[in-house]
Amino acid sequence: MSEGLLKRYGDYLPLTADTPMLSMGEGDTPLVESRRLGKQFGIGRLFFKLEGCNPSGSFKDRGMVVAVAKAMEAGHTTILCASTGNTSASAAAYGAAAGLETVVLVPAGQIAEGKLSQAVAYGARVIKIDGNFDAALNVARELADSYNISLVNSVNPHRIEGQKTAAFEIIETLGDAPDNLFIPVGNAGNITAYWKGFKEAESDERASRLPQMMGFQAEGSAPIVKGHPIADPQTIASAIRIGNPASWSSALVARDESGGSIDTVSDDEILEAYKLLARMEGIFCEPASAASVAGVIKCSRGGMDFSSSTIVCIITGNGLKDPSVALALASHPLEESSADAQIVAGIVGAQLKQ
Ligand code: F0G
Known about the structure:
The chain has 354 residues and is α/β, with parallel strands linked by helices. The protein has helices at 5-8, 37-40, 60-73, 86-98, 113-121, 133-146, 157-163, 165-174, 189-203, 223-226, 248-258, 267-281, 287-301, 323-328, 341-348; strands at residues 31-33, 45-50, 78-82, 101-107, 125-129, 150-151, 180-184, 212-218, 261-265, 310-315. 52% of the residues are buried.
């Protein structure tokens, strides 16, 4: 039985004797070594941390288990979040497991169908906000200030505490921190959490070094890179369509203390990485997750020498979250046949004769 993060990393989390040991088997996700992409782009060792293997299909479950356990401990009966989709799916899942009411605010028409269907299936109240994610988060913060509910967005410090455990797992698997960590950046909670985790592990000598943090925003939603909020953020990677990240300043700290960078990748670069990951590695992620790999490819093409580097890319969410993008990018049209082996053989053609 998977023990979950509260048991496994309780010593590093803000637990008390009264914190319920909630678990849905989150964490302990695979760190898979690249078979082809690493070689193609001249990288010493390239790994993918498959956070889509968490119970609700994204990295959000790591922070959510801590935030929801603390909400239960505080005696709250309702949790609330704003979300581009994954936080709402995770909150709804853990809210259901904990027997709490879950209310989620999502930007109308801007979240992927898989994520919306999760929140609905888990029984959350879903309120579509006429505005973008940033507007929905403002509403959520205002409600949390006025009512006796737990806000479970990453502005809740318990979320960051839970999410930092992914850095611990990477160190345990590799034996030390990698040279570089490539990660998508939206509301900037995750890059903040990883940096906290790596620093804590280094300061109590579980790691001998710190990685450079390499964050990537989508070009049309890159407030941190541009240096100002974006009023109308755009990108195919709807999970990171965010114009005014809540953890902006701590993302800058992670970048600067680690000697890393936060840069942009275009939607075309994101989709190229998304296709390469699926077709060369067998890893199906959602578009936002591919921003980490798009970042590696961009740096490598730009002349950075990674030939003796160990690199980890965070694959933040499962591809099934956003199936419409996969279908739109199909490399051949879907074909049809009657139920007749001869006819199917004729359609498949040369590949059957090898
Ligand atoms: N990747 C995925 C799949 C995400 O869902 C998110 C954020 C990120 C990357 C970026 O992480 O916000 O910590 O910088 N999704 C949030 C949500 C905003 O509401 O689900 P971040």
